[in-house]
Amino acid sequence: MSERSDPRGCDLHARAPSWSNWAGDQRCMPRALERPATIEQLRACMERAVEDSRRVRVVGSGHSFSDIACTDGMMVSLARMRRLLDVDRGSGLARVQAGITIRELNGALHEHGLALENVGDIDAQTLAGAISTATHGTGAGLRNLAAQAREMTLVLADGSTLVCSARADPELWRAARVGLGSLGAIAEITLSCVPGFTLHGVDAPAPLEEVLERFEELALGNDHFEFFVFPHAKTALTRTNNRTELPPRPPRRLAAYANDVLLANRAFGLFCRAGRRFPSQIPRLNRIVTALAGRRERVDRSAAIFASPRLVRFTEMEYAVPRAEVPTAVRRVLELVQQRGFAVPFPIEARTVAPDDAFLSTACGRDSGFVAVHMYRGMQWEPYFRAVEAIMDELGGRPHWGKRHFQTAATLRARYPDWDRFQSARARLDPHGRFANAWSDRVLGPVRALSPS
Fold it and tell me: I need a labelling partner for 23 at 20 to 30 A (CA). Which of 121, 125, 327, 400 fits?
C-alpha cells in the first residue's frame, strides 16, 4: 500500500486498507483513509472530499458494534488528534483534541488533579466516538459522557469550522452533543471535570430476585450500581462504587493481573469457547462461572475502578428503557432464553443513567436504565438479539447508537420527542449529506432539505 502526504498536511493512503471494528464483525473498504493531526488538516480532508465527491465518516477506535463508522467513501481517522490542549484546574474545564481515548484522557486529567465524574467500564473509545453515541457509565444521579461536554469545535462538510456551545446556539448544542457523526467532524471538545476522587468498589454475588426487587433502592442508594446475571443462574453479580475519603490502595500488579486478566478474561474466554463448541452445556457452564465469582473490594482512584480490561471478543446490543422497567426487562430476557433455548454464554447487564436534554440521547428526558445482551464471537447472535429487541420495543426502548439493533428512522422517530429538531440541525449543517453512510441512511433517513423561510 502506498502512502503520500497531501500538500495541505493530511496523511493519505492512496489505496486504503480494509477496516474492521474491535469485535471484528463490521468491515468496510473505504476509497480513501486520511489521518489529520490538526484542525487545519481536518479541514483539508473535508475539502478533498468535496473535490472528489465522496461521502465521509469519521472513525475513532472502532469500539462500536454497529456499522455506524463504515463507509465506501472517505474514512477520516482521529488517531493523530489526541492531545490535551488546555486545562484549568480552578474551573475544571479541559480542552482536548477529539481523538484522545478515554484512557489517555483519564491519565492526563489525573496529572492535573482532575477526573471525569462518570465513565463506562471500557476506556479504549475515543472521546468523540463516546460522546457522539451517548456512551455512558452507571449512576442514577449521573448523566452520560456527552452531558459533560461544554463546547465542541466542528469541521463542517465545506471545510469551515463551527464552535458549538449552549451559550452560542442552544438548539444546535442539543443536536451536536449526540451527533452520531452526521453533523460534522468533531475536532476539539471542552469538558467539565471534577476534582480527582477515590472510589470504594465492592463486587459481590447476591440472590437475583432480591436484586430485582430492590433495584430502585440499590440504584438510588449508591453513587454507581450495576449488576450482571448469566442465563440459567439465580445469582446476580453486583457492582457498587461509592466515593470515599480513604486513600487509594491500588492492588499489587500480580494480584490485579490474576483477577482482571487470568480470571475475568482468560478463564472466562475458555468457558465461552467451551460453550460455543458444546452449546447444550452452556446452562451448566454459566452456573459454574457465577459460582466462581466471589466478593471483591477495592479502594482506588476513580478511573482505575471504572475501567476493566476487555480481552474476550463479543458483539452486543443495549437498550435504554425507563428505569422502573429494568427488572421487568431482565426477567423477560431470562425467560426468553429459557423458553426459546438460545445458547447464551454471556451475562445480561443492567445499569442506570440520569436524564439529559440532547435531542438524540438515549436518556433524553427520562430516568433511564440500560439492559445489555451480548454474544460470544463466532456464535449465532441475530435470532437472540431480535427476540430481545421485541421485548425492549414493548417497554419503550431506545437502542444504544453504537451497538447492534434493527431499527430504522421510521421506527425510531416516535421514540424521540425532538427527532425532527435534530433533523433540522442536520439539514442545516450538512445539507448535501456529506457525512452520511449506509447506517445513517437506514437509521436516520436521508437528509431533508430545509424549507425556504
Answer: 327
Q: What is the pTM of this model?
A: 0.94
Cα 421 from Cα 413, distance rounded (Å): 11
Q: How many domains is the chain built from? A: 3
Q: Does 169 map to a domain?
A: yes
Q: Is 448 within a domain?
A: no
* Claim to verify: residue 395 and residue 423 sit in the same structural domain: no
CATH number at residue 34: 3.30.43.10
**Residue 263: per-residue pLDDT:** 65
Beta strand residue intervals within 208-335, DSSP E = 224-229, 235-244, 296-301, 314-322
Three-state secondary structure call for residue 409: helix
* Separation between Cα atoms, residue 138 and residue 368, nearest integer Å: 10
Structure confidence at residue 1 as a pLDDT band (50, 70, 90): very low
| Helix H or strand E segment including 329 | helix 326-340
Q: 229 and 187 share a domain?
A: no
Range of the domain at 384: 198-399
Res. 185: pLDDT tops 80? yes
- Mind giving me the DSSP string for 148-167? GEEEEEEE-TTS-EEEE-TT
d(CA 63, CA 47): 27
CB within 8 A of 90, min separation 6: which ones?
none
Cell of 1: 500500500
Are 439 and 66 contacting, i.e. CB atoms less than 8 angstroms apart? Answer: yes
Extract the C-alpha cell encoding 15. 489505496
